[in-house]
Amino acid sequence: MNETAAPLVRSNFPAPKAVLELFKPITWFAPMWAFMCGVVSTGAPFSEMWPLALAGAFLAGPMICATSQAVNDWFDRHVDAINEPNRPIPSGRIPGRWGLWIAMVWTIVSLLFAATLGPWVLVAAALGIVLAWAYSAPPFRLKQSGWWGPASVGFSYEGLTWFTGAAVVTQTLPDIKILLLAGLYAAGAHGIMTLNDFKAVEGDRQLGLRSLPVVMGVDGAARFACLVMAVPQAVVVGLLVYWGLLPYAAGVLIALLAQFVLMRRLLSDPLKHTPWYNATGTSLYVLGMLVSAIGVGSLLGGNA
What we know:
Elements: H1 2-10, H2 16-23, H3 29-41, H4 46-75, H5 77-83, H6 98-115, H7 119-136, H8 148-170, H9 176-196, H10 201-207, H11 212-216, H12 218-242, H13 246-268, H14 270-303
């Protein structure tokens, strides 16, 4: 009797803890960091815009990023039932079609919240939501491509959220300098996303997913990822020099040179060293984002 009662209880309603696990809070850091870089890059005094900054950070992480995680888990539920059966949906802790309902409701809530922060924020949020669904849901399933999948994630997590952070503050189209930084760091994030695919190379091969480690081979994809991460940062250094922001250019350059040293170890055994590089080299990448944002913010704030 007790053995049949427990599944019935689980099938009614997902527990809040399971929903939070579905939303994967650990993934919120990247878009929230990029959002704050966007805020800082405007040069606006934090004392004047911190309420909007906090609201926008909430939009970037616990709302839009969480929505993308829920969408991804719903459309990956059959694969997860084989590879990761303890996840909330395949384990039954989020039963029935609750995973889909949660993704749809959180999509609507996110867009409504974005609308309160201004028209440019709503446009960026809507584009981010569209990409989140296109990444995971048929017929597009961008995640099946080693080119389009990382590109869409990098654009959403770094570029769009940086743009959103600036738009929240300015309530208009951000300065071209801000757009250039956001675009360059979004392009470089393609390499970071490619490195993330290394943890599932064998599974991707078996499932027919054409991630770059599958298409290029692990060594080739690792070299490509390093190149894709390095080139935009080098361009950022050049732009900062051109704009007269020499101390900030030096900071980004030092971070880039340190990454070159770390990349040598990464390339010696990509499968083994990718988690280590994500904790070291990728951290330097995002630190450079903040340095460049502070530099442009000092310029734009001084010109205001």
